[in-house]
């Protein structure tokens, strides 16, 4: 088992370029205390996903460092980074298999009971029980059994069961009916509790609830503060 971490995250003078001479991040400095929720906002191409890519260690910085609990993530194994940093992507990845397996994908040793608990916590249990075979219902990668909102709730259940200390969430932009929207907001609150979270935020409600909003522009942080301050 890996040592438990608190979940303090810092970006220190982070510089990155995908192509030589075209910096995507130009010296990002950001300190986040364990448990805080940070909303990342900014125009397309401003560097939001790039910061998250570096936090997952999909790439290494050209300069500077990403640290978790003060430790440069390059000095620990990829496995330990990936086990502590969870990602919920915009395009929720549903694979062909049962609903149960899709939730369990977050942690393969989870019991059936763990799966149900996670689904209940994000209010997905009722719609799952309404499906023809409940948790055993087979879904397809591109199938339409599930609505966008339902897919999102499943991805939250999957993240909840994985239980990472640091969570990255690329919020979906798809329009969702009001009732599902409220469910998602409630589920999100539960998912964020006790974790350090970075949300590439599109919903006003998410931005309003964040502890801090960080505004990016052309690879730099141009503003940050609470919703009231900005
Ligand atoms: P969006 O809101 O559209 O998701 P973003 O803020 O997430 O935008 P990034 O994806 O971080 O923006 O992109 C930052 C810069 O890096 C942009 O100039 C983009 O063109 C470039 N970029 C992103 N991914 C790659 C890549 N895989 N290869 C080359 N350049 C990339
Ligand atoms: Mg992006």
Automatic annotation (TrEMBL):
Name the UniProt record assigns to this protein: ABC transporter ATP-binding protein/permease
Q: Where in the cell is it found?
A: Cell membrane
Domain ABC transporter residue range list: 9-230
């Amino acid at each position: 088992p890996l040592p438990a971490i608190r979940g303090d995250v810092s970006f220190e003078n982070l510089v990155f370029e995908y192509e030589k001479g075209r910096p995507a991040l130009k010296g990002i400095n950001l300190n986040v205390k364990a448990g805080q929720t940070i909303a990342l906002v900014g125009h397309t191409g401003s560097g939001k996903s790039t910061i998250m890519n570096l936090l997952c260690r999909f790439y290494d910085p050209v300069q500077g460092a990403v640290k978790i609990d003060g430790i440069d993530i390059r000095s620990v194994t990829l496995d330990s980074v990936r086990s502590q940093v969870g990602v919920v992507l915009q395009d929720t990845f549903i694979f062909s298999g049962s609903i149960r397996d899709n939730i369990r994908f977050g942690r393969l040793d989870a019991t059936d009971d763990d799966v149900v608990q996670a689904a209940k916590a994000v209010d997905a249990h009722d719609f799952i029980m309404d499906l023809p075979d409940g948790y055993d219902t087979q879904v397809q990668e591109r199938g339409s059994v599930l609505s966008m909102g339902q897919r999102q709730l499943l991805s939250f259940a999957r993240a909840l069961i994985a239980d990472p200390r640091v969570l990255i969430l690329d919020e979906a932009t798809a329009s969702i009916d009001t009732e599902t929207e409220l469910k998602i907001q409630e589920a999100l609150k539960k998912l964020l509790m006790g974790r350090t979270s970075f949300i590439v935020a599109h919903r006003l409600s998410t931005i309003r609830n964040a502890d801090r909003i960080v505004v990016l522009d052309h690879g730099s942080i141009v503003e940050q503060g609470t919703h009231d301050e900005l």
